[in-house]
């Protein structure tokens, strides 16, 4: 999915909000905005939003001198993760359809995202996702493809979404699962460290994509990851960034699980902002 003109105000707002969150001085905030504006004005509109986001946040890292500018925020949500896990694992245990409830949990965890401009109330938004209707609901296709698959590639998104991913992965215990994280910190996206904190390594093989873009941009990923993806029978793609990067992928059975958080993605999917998506893209 390429960058649209409507993405530009969002990129600018991201730069402003990131500066306000991460920079201690007015001069740093101004420098972040000025350099981001220059980048946005001159960027290739054919690049994906995750590629643009990576470039903007590279500016933020350089100016603030922080390799992981969102670490304190990630630490805060990682500390909340066990409580989220316990609460929503309990909902799965009490559910008549464990797999479906686990899917809801995995999508619910997607609400915490500092890469999309705007405010959110994590606990309130998570609870809402647990009961709201799906805009796309390809659950039957998911069960069918899952029943025929041995290996599954699971593309992670954010922290503390990792704890919600664990809930779903535990319902897929008979599959060989590879859990893919970013190779370096980018916004609040999950890294190997975050996956280990959530206990993912006990139930899946954790690997890096080879990229630090906030979405799985295949041209930026490692040969090892691409080989693993090719060999996997099916893919679960979590979050808006991964959808933006992979919505036109061919040759793989991919299930996109996300909340539509911006007008551009919502329009692309023909849904409303705030809708939840469980969408299948066939491999043929």
Task: Write a structural description.
The protein has 284 residues and is an alpha/beta fold. The protein folds into 2 domains: 7-64; 71-281, Rossmann fold. It has helices at 7-22, 26-42, 49-64, 71-93, 98-108, 122-129, 139-148, 161-170, 192-197, 223-231, 240-246, 263-269, and strands spanning 134-137, 151-155, 176-181, 205-208, 234-238, 254-259, 276-281. Strand 3, helix 9 and strand 4 (205-208) form a beta-alpha-beta unit. The longest helix is centred in the N-terminal third of the chain and has 23 residues, at 71-93.
Short description:
The protein is α/β, with parallel strands linked by helices.
Defining traits:
284 residues, alpha/beta, 12 helices, Rossmann fold, seven-stranded mixed β-sheet, globular, 2 domains, 13% strand
Question: Strands of the largest sheet, in order across it?
Answer: 1-7-6-5-2-3-4
Order of helices and strands: HHHHHHEHEHEHEHEHEHE
Beta-strand residue percentage = 5-15%
Task: State the end-to-end distance.
Answer: 19 Å
Approximate helicity band:
40-55%
Give Rg in angstroms: 18 Å
The largest sheet is: 7 strands, mixed
Could you tell me the number of beta strands?
7
For CATH, the homologous superfamily of the largest domain is named as Uncharacterised protein PF01937, DUF89, domain 3
Global outline: globular
The CATH topology of the largest domain turns out to be: Rossmann fold
Number of helices: 12
| Low confidence ranges | none
């Amino acid at each position: 999915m390429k960058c649209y003109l409507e993405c530009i105000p969002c990129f600018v707002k991201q730069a402003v909000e990131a500066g306000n969150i991460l920079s201690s001085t007015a001069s740093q905030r101004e420098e972040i905005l000025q350099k981001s504006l220059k980048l946005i004005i001159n960027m290739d509109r054919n690049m994906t939003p995750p590629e643009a986001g990576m470039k903007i946040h590279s500016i933020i890292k350089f100016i603030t001198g922080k390799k992981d500018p969102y670490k304190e925020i990630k630490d805060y949500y990682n500390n909340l993760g066990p409580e989220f896990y316990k609460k929503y694992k309990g909902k799965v245990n009490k559910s008549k359809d464990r797999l479906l409830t686990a899917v809801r949990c995995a999508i619910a965890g997607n609400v915490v995202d500092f890469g999309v401009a705007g405010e959110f109330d994590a606990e309130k938004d998570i609870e809402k996702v647990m009961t709201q209707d799906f805009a796309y609901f390809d659950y039957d296709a998911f069960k069918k493809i899952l029943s025929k698959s041995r290996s599954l590639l699971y593309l992670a998104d954010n922290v503390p979404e990792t704890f919600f991913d664990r809930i779903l992965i535990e319902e897929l215990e008979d599959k060989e699962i590879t859990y893919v994280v970013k190779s370096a910190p980018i916004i609040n996206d999950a890294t190997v460290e975050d996956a280990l904190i959530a206990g993912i390594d006990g139930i899946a093989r954790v690997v890096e994509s080879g990229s630090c873009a906030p979405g799985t941009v295949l041209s930026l990923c490692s040969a090892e990851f691409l080989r693993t993806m090719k060999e996997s029978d099916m893919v679960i793609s979590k979050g808006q960034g991964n959808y933006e990067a992979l919505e036109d992928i061919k040759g793989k059975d991919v299930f996109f699980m996300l909340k539509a958080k911006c007008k551009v993605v919502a329009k692309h999917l023909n849904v409303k902002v705030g809708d939840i998506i469980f969408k299948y893209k066939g491999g043929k």
